[in-house]
Design a protein that fits this description.
disordered N terminus; disordered C terminus; alpha/beta; TIM Barrel; two-stranded antiparallel ribbon; nine-stranded parallel β-sheet; single chain; 362 residues
Amino acid sequence: MIHMPTTLGELQIGPLQLDFPVVQAALSGYSDMPMRLLARRHGAAYTLCEVMLDKFICDLKMRRRNRHFLSIADEEHPTGGQLMGAEPEHFVPAALRLVENGFDVIDINFGCPVKKVLGRCRGGFHLSQPDVALEIIRRVRDALPERVPVTVKMRRGIDDSAESRDKFFEIFDGAYAAGVAATTVHGRTVKQRYDGPSRWEFLRELKEHAGERVVLGSGDLFSAQACFDMMEYTGLDGVTVARGAIGNPWIFTQCRALAAGEPLPAPPTLFEQRDVITEHYRLAEELYGADRCLPDMRKFAIKYSQLHPHHAEVRAELCQVKEPGAWRDVLAKWYAVDGPGVYLPIDEPNPRSTEAELLAAG
């Protein structure tokens, strides 16, 4: 059953006025320029680059094999650069370099739950140390021009302990006091990683606490309807689509259609899929080179193929491509005749269906 959304407004991130409150999240290993550009063309109001290590950005040499890290297409603005690191003093030069290279927003990652990242005192680890987290925010905000918004990505805490909750709100409130324009909060804890449902009840409580401060939500957004469900249930100002946008830029088109009061669009046809996959490969070849783009495109091919009625066969053949240009043969075989596609399968729990559980647990 389709639940029609309430009226959606614009999204304000500092001086940036976005015409729609659904944006593409930073995705480690995925949200490079080709993916961001396709998301923008399909209706994402704003996109974020994959997270980059502060010291790596400072030491990066602009050679051909490295240029993709800082590549931004003219038509994809505004776009944000997301930074991660351990030491406050390393964030500022990295943030300045991202701005010099054209990023419109600097987003600070306090949410990554990967074990290796946490072990190096980065990402979500900072939710355990409010003093360091707020020093990072203050240093970055003070160093950048006022025209460049600073935002923060968080999870709802390290774990579900009272101490973790207190530290979360200390960082959350302190971030706005230090001048951040918005935060994005994932409804899972760092310890939880991606297991279990995202707690939308916490996000609703958080928005009530935040008042007029801009807060975006993240977690379990694998369909256009889920995006609206989250905003309607929580009252958040916007949402960031992460894993649900991989190989599926149409989720943003679908969101805009629902917002306009239109029925949910049909899944992209095989010709529509073929054209987007072709364009994605073209952009990747230009950015990385014909040989280097192949490993990168396999992970996208896995997701794109899920929209095809014969997804298992298409996935297998796309992932077996080893020669530059051979992917065109796969498209010629499986996308030669137009036909209906299928919606992206959703294996994650639907937080709307578990709302009673969340209310009981909250």
